[in-house]
Amino acid sequence: MRTIRSNGLERRYLLHVPIDIATCPDLVIALHALGTNPSIMEFMTKLSSKADEHGFIVIYPEGTISSTGMASWNAEFCCGDSALEKVDDVLFISDLIDILRENHNINNVLVTGFSNGGMLTHILGVKLSEKIQMIAPVGATISDEILNLNPERSMEVLIIHGQEDQIIPLYKSKGNSLPAIEAEQYWARVNKCDIIEKNETPEAIFHNYENSHKVTSIIVKNAGHVWPGGQSRMLEQHDPKTIDATSQILDRFLSQN
Description:
The strands form two sheets. This protein has a ten-stranded mixed beta sheet with strand order 1-2-4-3-7-8-9-12-11-10, with helices on both faces. Strands 5-6 form a two-stranded antiparallel sheet. By secondary structure, the chain is α/β, with parallel strands linked by helices. About 25% of the residues lie in helices and about 25% in strands. It starts with a strand and ends with a helix. It is built from seven helices and twelve strands. It has one domain (about 1-250): 3-Layer(aba) Sandwich (Rossmann fold), CATH 3.40.50.1820.
């Protein structure tokens, strides 16, 4: 694990730079779930092995660690000590992007995250749109506060969610969060998408909102609160293994080059 100082705090991250790195590599930032860590995110998503295949860089930042050892991200409405202490995770991720740009000729930047990490991914899409080309939150949602915010520019958005997710429900509010379906509607609105195409397969429901930047939502049938196709999952959370979130995200992101 490496460290940097951000907003006066020592912050940690795991960095994977492939041996056969591209001349102008893309950067993927992968944000772990509440109570997990960068190593679990790396194992679950298989992003490092994909980076070795395609020559991009992956960075796995670490959330704020509580006195009980639980890592969390400040997504403003959630979660844990990071939200209570108002930790500036937006600045942390911004600082990481700047460091990677100093050391490598970075091309496009993707931020993805699962659960609490996916919530921060939404926030970063709004507040760091000048530094990010695409976001891909998985098993995440937004709150009322974000509805009145607009990113400085449009970007590519891919949202993946389990249809049977009860931890972050698709169609109902829970705590301070909105139904996850409202996240795709928010991004379609701020991206000024005026065309929607709906498709359904035995595995998933696809919503495509079209404009100069596309918003896509993949609702995975029979999936709970999981990173679909991941190498690990939370206990009692069902993953039908019919959709591979990592492949869906990278296929979309790398096609921009």
